[in-house]
Amino acid sequence: MNSAVVTPIVALDVPTRAGAEAVVRQLGDACGFYKVGLELFSAEGPSVVAWLRDQGKEVFVDLKLHDIPNTVRGAARSVARHGASLLTVHASGGREMIAAAVEGANEGRPDGGCGILGVTILTSMDAGGIEEAWGREGVVVETEVLRLAGLVAAGGGAGIVCSGHEAAAVTGVFGDRLGLLIPGIRLPGGEAHDQRRVMTPAAAAAAGARWLILGRAVTGADDPVGAMMAVHAAL
């Protein structure tokens, strides 16, 4: 297992605040960190972030921002002001955009409490899907993740989002300079759902993850609290 602290984050992939509140109540003290993604943020806005903070929870706002630097800076500032601990941008937006996001987050939370993470390659995509989207052949996922990670480091980002399968390579190049957030986490024997590149909590921790994203592996389990405790035990 990874000797560093690895933090599991449960994704609130629900369409309403009521649904989010139900998940948080059900998990109770078993989870202290939640992800608010596009669906929930679009439906409920920043108030759901404030509510989670009022419950004593940390919040990862997963918006995957990708726009001109000034726009991203303003958006990052606003999200950080509402108490987010982590916020995503697309690493493909480039070094200047990433740096603007970092500046905005620091303006919103002068305590430095909102880290900017650059999304590299979505775990729903494999090499074939990337080749189709980018219009070129011979894509090597690991190579592209490392290239994009370099942009995040150059822009001052706190870390990257990548599959656990690329984590060891990123750590080998960047050491602990970039924290790794690993989505697509499944408990042993669990379904992959719409993810292409998945990994167990223990394997992701061993590969160097700092944060793990758990969705249906916990929220869709027959015993969500038991599933969450199994994740903690694996770390």
Nutshell version of this structure?
The chain is of the alpha/beta class. The chain is built from 11 helices and 8 strands. It has an 8-stranded parallel barrel, surrounded by 6 helices.
Structure description:
The chain has 235 residues and is an alpha/beta fold. The chain has one domain: TIM Barrel, CATH 3.20.20.70. It is built from eleven helices and eight strands. Helix 4 runs parallel beside helix 5 and helix 7 packs across helix 8. The chain starts with 6 loop residues before the first strand and ends with a helix.
Order the strands across the largest sheet as they lie in space.
1-2-3-4-5-6-7-8
Strand proportion, as a percent range, falls in 15-25%
SSE order in H/E notation?
A: EHEHHEHEHEHHEHEHEHH
Summarize the main sheet: 8 strands, parallel, barrel
* CATH fold topology: TIM Barrel
CATH superfamily: Aldolase class I
Secondary structure layout plus pairing:
Layout: E1 7-11, H1 17-27, E2 33-37, H2 38-44, H3 47-54, E3 58-65, H4 69-81, E4 86-90, H5 95-108, E5 115-119, H6 127-134, H7 141-154, E6 159-161, H8 164-174, E7 179-182, H9 201-206, E8 211-214, H10 216-219, H11 224-234
Helix pairs in contact: 4-5, 7-8
Question: What descriptors fit this protein?
Answer:
alpha/beta, 8 strands, 11 helices, globular, TIM Barrel, 8-stranded parallel barrel, 235 residues
